[in-house]
Amino acid sequence: MSPARLTARTRSARPGEPQEHFRESAVGQTAWQGGGDAEGGVPTLEVEGYRAVIRLNRPRHHNRLQPDDVITFGKLLDEVQAARDIRVLLVTGAGPSFCSGYHLGAIGSNAIGKAPDFPGNPMEYAALADRMDALPMPTIAVVNGSLYGGGVELAVSCDFRIGVTPSRMFIPVARFGSQYLLNGMKRLVHRLGLAAAKRILLAGEEFDAEAMLRMGLLDELATRETLWDRALAWSDQIAKQGPLAVRAMKVALNEIARGEFDEEAARARGTALQKTQDAAEGIAAREARRQPVFQGR
Is pLDDT at 268 greater than 80 in this prediction? Predict the structure, then answer.
């Protein structure tokens, strides 16, 4: 059964917040109605003012991503990237699990050892995490439950991760005699450290929510009842910042983490920021002792 179509609505903007509009993505809605099945549907996109939410919709199978899901997810990222007013993207799952990665059963036993060439194949799934990592606006994984395999990669590709207790995480790739995604290994080392990456991939350890918090895979733990409130609070805090400055610094910080820092380009971005309307607004707001109202210009 497809969900009711969301209707547009508006409300007065809070201080420092653009006028808000709530809509459901045409891609997500059409795909759910046409491409879903009795066990769930493809990912959907909701946009509310500065905030976008991509939701995975196969709870019966721990929100694994099938080929159709990969294709739709990519189209939703196109929408998010093209939307000028979006300042933060949240990714979450329906039901008790966050994500269990790619549906390996979709490959077929006769394709083992061959380069997949069908739409929505595992290489395209791997590219989703790379695209998430490269999005200009900050991203938050709202980890509503356990995560497995490639679902960990999806979460780690986000800038921030808020989880729930109880939940667990593991990547069983070595149990199947396979190698993990190359960029996924890089991200684990960059963001969690070499020791943690070895425990996850080489030893195949399973971690509970508290251990994920200690190792840095999660930035905060919440209960299931408070998870969404905390996610909205994080997104509100991010949206109060100057969006152009946030985007510029995200590029620089990720380059630094990868050992690819382009200091000249970062300096040029900083110089360009000083000439924006947002920079002038920030100075005016400080002098007037009020909250700035940034427009991203």
Answer: yes
